[in-house]
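To: structure subgroup
Subject: Chain for Friday's discussion

All,

I'm putting the inputs and outputs inline so they're searchable in the archive.
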Amino acid sequence: KKVIKNILVFTLLICFTLIVTTTFADLPPDPGTGGPGNGDIPVGGSPIGGGLFILLSMALAYGSSKFIEYRKKARK
């Protein structure tokens, strides 16, 4: 059973590695001559840093709550 588990983990690791290397973002579209507003504002360009920070902080909060719950059950 341990050999099958190791083979499965290795196969999944290879699959995820191949998927990550083939998924690249496209280049942003050409803004053209006229954009929104007066034409000086570029289209798109929203940062992803804020969303990543929110996601990581929520994961940290969830993990810490599960850890505290686990410690309470272990003490009983």
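Points worth raising on Friday:
The chain has two helices and no strands.
The chain has a mean pLDDT of 75.

D.
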